[in-house]
Design brief:
With 388 residues, the protein is of the alpha+beta class. It contains 11 helices and 17 strands. Helix content is 26%, strand content 22%. Bound molecules: 2-acetamido-2-deoxy-beta-D-glucopyranose (2 copies). Keywords: Membrane, Polyamine biosynthesis, Transmembrane, Transmembrane helix.
Length: 388
């Protein structure tokens, strides 16, 4: 928290896509300096509006978004790093999905750019000693970088070689695969390229915390099954270990059945499970959002600081998310009627709901990245965002 003491941040909310009635899902947090909320220069227009409420951000004009690098990975996915000057963000995309982002300005780079990452980073306050962490899914390395900067060793498993390369080249991630690998791994942790499920069913090792953050426009079903959670509990976690799953989905209404199934499955495996949304559940009630579930066999609570930056953080900043997320608990245990699906091969996700979530995120991605960039990437807009 060294750097954080110096500043604070507010947020710029991203508007819902105007062509769709689906509301906003995941928000960009915004950096500002403390004492007078001085706005980070490159984003002043967007931010001053954001501080007033939840404005629509106009789609950035052509000059604001620059493609830094794009590559097709071995699985045929288009991975790209873009720079949105107006928002002061570097963005990592996989196909049509934003999988990570980081502030361009170095002094803000340890602050989560999205509320979903701020919520996950709050895991540092769980009442456990976190020494070794396993992260499934790298993205732009926000959470691994944050934990590593707090002297926690984080091993990473990521299926896309290209994502690992771009995280290393553009987002300050150390894969520890070159140079003095041993010293690097000792300090930061190692990086394995491969499928998370194959990795989990291979050789094991014990961790204090396993983080699953594998959303790529959909939540891959093969990593969200009863079998996988049991494997993590039995082979990868210490008895007091914690599994944290970031799942993108709905928390209320009929479309929440998959999220509820996820929570129910975790409760079937672990003694305690609590899920949180990355914004107030009363806001954007019908929107998909990051739902972060923590599960453990031993009770846990969070020791979130209340002084310093945490005494009065700017609304919608990432510290503010950390201070308030415990009030945003969702997916409570159902009263004595846990209908667990018995077949351990059963996967949680159903295709129709996935399409809904994808469309939702595609419309979100469109508000950050203008269409000519998608065209340049060969990822032309689809009709999904205009359905419903
Ligand atoms: C963490 O807090 C819970 C109560 O919330 C307590 O039961 C548990 O023993 C604590 N665990 C550790 C390792 O301190
Ligand atoms: C429990 O689940 C069954 C089957 O879904 C349902 O018929 C029943 O009403 C539920 N009971 C309660 C108390 O919710």
């Amino acid at each position: 928290m060294r750097r954080r003491e110096k500043k604070d941040h507010a947020k710029a909310a991203l508007s819902a896509d105007r062509s769709s009635s689906i509301a906003v899902n995941s928000f960009v947090t915004r950096c500002v300096a403390t004492g007078g909320l001085v706005v980070f220069a490159v984003a002043s227009a967007g931010l001053s509006l954001a501080l007033l409420g939840r404005p629509d951000l106009d789609a950035p004009s052509d000059g604001h978004v620059r493609l830094l690098e794009a590559k097709t990975d071995l699985n045929g996915h288009v991975v790209a790093t873009l720079q949105n000057q107006e928002l002061g963000l570097k963005i990592l995309t996989l196909d049509r999905c934003i999988i990570g982002a980081q502030y361009l300005q170095e002094e803000f780079q340890d602050q989560a750019a999205f509320t979903g990452f701020a919520l996950q980073e709050a895991v540092v306050f769980v009442n456990r000693s976190l020494r070794r962490v396993l992260q499934l899914g790298l993205g732009a390395a926000s959470v691994p970088n944050f934990l590593r900067s707090r002297r926690i060793q984080v091993d990473v498993v990521e299926v896309s070689e290209t994502v690992i390369d771009m995280a290393e080249k553009h987002f300050g991630f150390s894969s520890c695969r070159r140079g003095n690998t041993k010293a690097c791994q000792q300090r930061f942790g190692r990086t394995v390229q491969g499928d998370g499920r194959e990795f989990l069913f291979g050789r094991d090792r014990r961790y204090d915390l396993v983080i699953s953050d594998v959303f790529v426009g959909s939540n891959p079903g093969h990593l969200h099954s009863l079998e996988v959670f049991q494997r993590i509990q039995q082979q990868w976690l210490w008895p007091s270990g914690v599994l944290m799953v970031n799942f993108v989905g709905f928390h209320s209404g009929h479309r929440s059945h998959i999220s509820r199934k996820l929570a129910r499955t975790l409760r079937h495996v672990f003694a305690t499970t609590r899920c949180f949304r990355d914004e107030d559940p009363a806001e954007h009630l019908d929107a998909a959002a990051n739902l972060v579930c923590l599960a453990s066999d031993q009770a846990f609570h969070f020791n979130v600081p209340t002084t310093g930056d945490f005494s009065n953080p700017a609304p919608f900043s990432s510290v503010w998310v950390m201070k308030h997320f415990q009030q945003w608990q969702v997916l409570p245990a159902e009263d004595g009627n846990e209908s667990i699906f018995q077949d351990s091969q059963n996967e949680l996700l159903e295709m129709d709901s996935q399409a809904e979530i994808q469309a939702h995120f595609w419309s979100h991605a469109q508000t950050l990245i203008p269409s000519h960039v998608w065209t340049a990437l060969g990822l032309l807009c689809c009709s999904e965002s205009r359905k419903n």
